[in-house]
Design goal:
Blueprint: H1 5-18, H2 21-26, E1 28-36, E2 42-43, H3 45-58, E3 59-70, E4 76-87, E5 101-113, E6 116-124, H4 126-134
């Protein structure tokens, strides 16, 4: 396991784009805190795993234009990227899925501890996404 935060995030996003949830989970601490805007906080690997499995049922996503930023002390990081997705299965409380595609800017903030990711907080414009899949 690398202790280089940039390499850690590169591995995280490589696993994301490959759909390798197990590899993503292997990069986080046992008590990882995971927040997504307009959603509930999840704590721990098990909840992070379950969230990613649920997401992979409803969405097929690939990230591009990933820009990574690491704090000087190496305890925090951020990523800005573009999400290219397909809405596969209707998610509770959201518009009906019919295979719509979307492109959405997003960003994530991270904290690192003991060579792993200990916090993941992702933000995107939910109203923009709803408008795209409702068109």
């Amino acid at each position: 396991m690398t202790t280089d935060p940039r390499a850690l995030l590169e591995a995280y996003y490589t696993a994301f784009n490959a759909g390798e949830t197990g590899k993503m989970v292997g990069l986080v601490t046992d008590d990882v805190v995971h927040d997504v805007n307009q959603g509930e906080r999840r704590t721990g690997k098990e909840d992070f795993w379950a969230f990613n499995l649920l997401m992979s049922k409803s969405y097929k996503e690939r990230l591009s234009d990933i820009y990574l930023m690491i704090s000087r002390d190496g305890t925090r990081g951020a990523a800005e990227f573009i999400v290219h997705g397909t809405y596969l299965e209707t998610a509770e409380g959201l518009p009906k899925a019919t295979g719509q595609t979307y492109t959405l800017p997003a960003g994530t903030f991270f904290e690192f501890r003991d060579g792993k990711i200990s916090r993941i907080t992702t933000y995107y414009n939910l109203n923009d996404w709803i408008a795209q899949v409702s068109a």
